[in-house]
């Protein structure tokens, strides 16, 4: 959620490894020195300037309304949602 507000986020450890992330995310190892370094980066003027217009790769926060509109559109088209079976014999 923090990337939606252009705020720094620190991921400690590798739980998020391989996942898409915003440029506002700082990854670090679970050691005191790395965590302190990540905090210092997140508080720096340069980093905050860099992320002030960053984009959240997971969307704009309007997913619910988009889903509702898609469902309404599908329902208005009288789509037959009944499961179909086919004999393969």
Q: SSE order, as H and E?
A: EEHHH
Radius of gyration: 21 Å
Share of residues in helices: 25-40%
Low-confidence blocks of residues? none
Distance between the termini: 51 Å
The main pleated sheet reads as: 2 strands, parallel
Q: Can you list the strand order of the major beta sheet?
A: 1-2
Q: Provide the residue-averaged pLDDT.
A: 88
The number of helical runs is 3
Number of strands: 2
Outline, from the CA principal axes? elongated
Strand content: 5-15%
Q: Helix/strand-derived class?
A: mainly alpha
Task: Describe this structure in a few short sentences.
The chain is mainly alpha-helical.
Question: What does this protein look like?
Answer:
The protein has a two-stranded parallel sheet with strand order 1-2. The mean pLDDT is 88. It starts with 8 loop residues before the first strand and ends in a 13-residue tail after the last helix. With 89 residues, the chain is mainly alpha-helical. The chain contains three helices and two strands; from the N terminus they run ββααα. The radius of gyration is 21 Å and the shape is elongated. The longest helix is centred in the last third of the chain and has 14 residues, at 63-76. The protein has helices at residues 32-43, 45-51, 63-76, and strands at 9-12, 25-28. The chain has a domain at 2-60.
Present the secondary structure layout:
Layout: E1 9-12, E2 25-28, H1 32-43, H2 45-51, H3 63-76
Parallel strand pairs: 1-2
